[in-house]
Write a structure and sequence with these properties.
Layout (H helix, E strand, L loop, with lengths): L17 H11 L3 E5 L3 H4 L1 H11 L7 E5 L5 H6 L4 E2 L3 H12 L3
Parallel strand pairs: 1-2, 2-3
Bound molecules: cobalamin.
Cobalamin binds next to strand 1, strand 2 and helix 5.
């Protein structure tokens, strides 16, 4: 959906470690880091990535958005993500909003 709307997407795959997220942000300098979790057990790792981004001095350089079946807007707010969307079309709208592109 994002590629269809003109975004360049790097897919880091599944079971992505905190270290891999941080390295990819440092290397590729994306505007947005999007994380998806299907399980409550993996969802909690999102907060660790957000914290690690801060520790690496990268948090201000990238917008963090989250989603997936167990993830809620309240959880996104709690971990200080920049956005949450419930489905793929809304993820596109969200990216355009937070990047202020038409
Ligand atoms: C298919 C499925 C499986 C398949 C996965 C196959 C595969 N290779 O992907 C199999 C059978 C393997 C499976 C296994 C398990 N599953 Co399962 N599974 C599902 C199911 C039915 C659909 C998931 C899916 O692919 N949906 C389609 C995608 C497109 O939808 P989505 O993930 O919701 O994503 C959309 C939005 O959430 C959003 N979105 C997603 N990510 C992101 C990211 C961002 C940044 C944004 C903005 C938006 C966004 O946009 C997407 C498109 O609209 C869900 C139920 C459900 N309704 O989600 C349960 C579900 C995820 N599974 C569940 C469970 C418990 C399990 C198991 C632990 C079961 C077990 N005891 O073994 C295992 C865990 C396996 C593992 N290691 O992860 C639970 C998780 C509950 C929880 N609270 O953690 C769910 C929610 C079912 C339930 N209601 O109980 N599962």
């Amino acid at each position: 959906m994002l590629e269809g709307h003109g975004f360049e997407v790097t897919d880091l795959g599944v079971s992505v470690s905190q270290e891999k997220f941080i390295a990819a942000v440092a290397d590729r300098k994306p505007d947005v880091l999007a994380m998806s979790a299907l399980l409550t057990t993996t969802m909690v790792e999102m907060q660790h990535v957000v914290r690690a981004l801060g520790e690496a001095g990268q948090r201000d350089r990238v917008k963090v958005i989250v989603g997936g079946a167990p993830v809620t807007r309240a959880y996104a707010d709690q971990i200080r993500a920049d956005g949450y969307a419930a489905d793929a079309p809304d993820a596109v709208v969200l990216c355009k909003e937070i990047l202020k592109v038409a």
